[in-house]
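For the sake of clarity, the format in which proteins appear in this thesis is described at this point. Each number in the token line that follows is a code from a learned vocabulary of backbone shapes. One such record is shown here in full, so that the layout can be seen directly:
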Amino acid sequence: MALVNPLTQDANAEVAELAKFFNETLGFCPNSVLTMQIRPAIARSFINLNKAVMENHGRVTAELKRLIGYITSANTGCRYCEAHTILAAKRYGGSDGRLNNIWQFRQSDLFTSAEKTAFEFALAASSVPNAVDASISQAMNEYWDEGEIVEILGVISLFGYLNRWNDSMATTLEEGAISAGEAHLKQNGWQVSKHL
């Protein structure tokens, strides 16, 4: 059961307008945002940060950003965000092969060396304590420029916030996200868990 119940989508006009962003990424406004809007300034700030982090500038594509968010969320154990990121990756062109084999990325030829490096960085950066070391930093600089590294770490950091928010709140998972989780993540042990 959720710690705090989300408000309706029309509870705050300014938040509702900003939240239209999620209709593109997920097809609905997430319950996490509807809970944040209990304090509208938090919801507004979060939505604007989310939009800035997920803006595309080149090689760090919308699909790749969602897969990085997935790796980060899975590493921290947030089932809510795992389902959302895999749904969004699919909506941004992720193939069933890439989505179904994300945890086999090290051995898979579905992912480039640069993507694999970004995933290793996501695992290290989302670990507690932080596990980014000199070899991971060197590999990141080999494959990605400084702007791209900022984008990638922006995604990891954004999901660090979301993972703590949704796991602590036990945010109720929406039907579309549940379907995506069951379709692409169940074989790796994903379940709705406390997000009912």
